[in-house]
Amino acid sequence: MEEVEILSPRSDAKPRMRKATIAPVLGLFFLAPLVAEYLLGNLPIALLPALMVLAPLYGGGAILIREAVRRTGRGWPSILLLGMAYAIFEEAFTTQSLFNPDYLSLKLGLLAPAFIPALGIGAWWTLWMFNVHAIWSIMTPIALVEACVPDRARKPWVGRKGLFVVGLIFTFGAVMSTIFGYKHDHYMASVAQFIGAGITTFLLAGSAFMIPKVREAEAGWIPSMWVACGIALAFGSAALFVPMKWGWGAVAALAALDFAALWLILVWSRRDGWGLKQQLGLGAGAALAYGWHAFLQHPAVGAMNGSVRIGNAIFLTGAVALIWFAAKRVNAMQTNSAK
Fold first, then answer.
1. Measured over all CA atoms, what is the biggest interatomic distance in the chain, rounded to whole angstroms?
2. Which residues sit opposite 271 in a β-bridge?
3. Domain positions in the chain
4. What one-character DSSP code corresponds to residue 136?
5. What are the CA-CA distances from residue 172 to residues 10, 56, 166, 187, 312 (Å)?
6. 3-state SS string for 122-184
7. Which residue stretches of the chain have pLDDT < 70?
8. pLDDT in tens, 94-143
9. How far apart are CA 164 and CA 183, in angstroms?
């Protein structure tokens, strides 16, 4: 937060402002990996200490994306594009899962469905990574944490020095992730694949800042917070149930779900009255889709035992509690504004 952004003329305003700002920053820092890996059920609760290793990459990336968008006065379309750029950065450069036919020797066959030989990638896995990271790893945590601080939801949370520190932390997380991946699987993508991924990342990131900042509100119906939650829950659950064995059919199904959901949100978000309640509803629905679906899957790492399902229940309960708290905060702010 810059020094000119003091909330009151009192001498203690700046320290109080920093204290109020650090909470959402830390919240986003840890919530991003919690949603991305633990709420999903990818990692069991027994591996919760790994959160300290995952947070610099996931949390650092989410903070940098949010700050870049809020500082430039742009909105969720920009966050989506930057989330897609993040997906390529992580999966092409740090884990290399977009190119590795046997990622971490897990024998999951991630690239086999809808494989594109000329690019050395699987169309299904690439599209799924766009969904996983852009929507769940980046957009969902940002939506939830912003709703927890509704009075600062559209304002920057980090100053220039803070951004520099977050950038260093994110770089550390990316480097450590790359080292971990290469240590466990000595795979290296081709130079052409790295160049192609780099160009795509640059184009997505650049496009995020070419979107117009302000759109005139239109008249029309918009969903309530809980209707938006139900819609996001339905779309998210449907996406999670698309089987990879469908190959190009899975690609078509995911693309259709993405197009339909994005079209609806784009239409509604341009209408008068769209705001934090709808944003919270969409984030809540996406989080709940992850949370309940976790009970149906085997963790990607670790053995399947009773503690896994206990962990699933704990993470889902935590998500529900966070959604309740955020809804209470948003409702309280709007009630006070109406007085």
1. 64
2. 218
3. 18-338
4. I
5. 38, 7, 10, 21, 29
6. EHHHHHHHHHHHHHHHHHHHHHHHHHHCHHHCCCCCCCHHHHHHHHHHHHHHHHHHHHHHHHH
7. 1-20, 214-216, 338-339
8. 999 999 998 877 788 999 999 999 999 999 999 999 999 999 999 999 99
9. 28
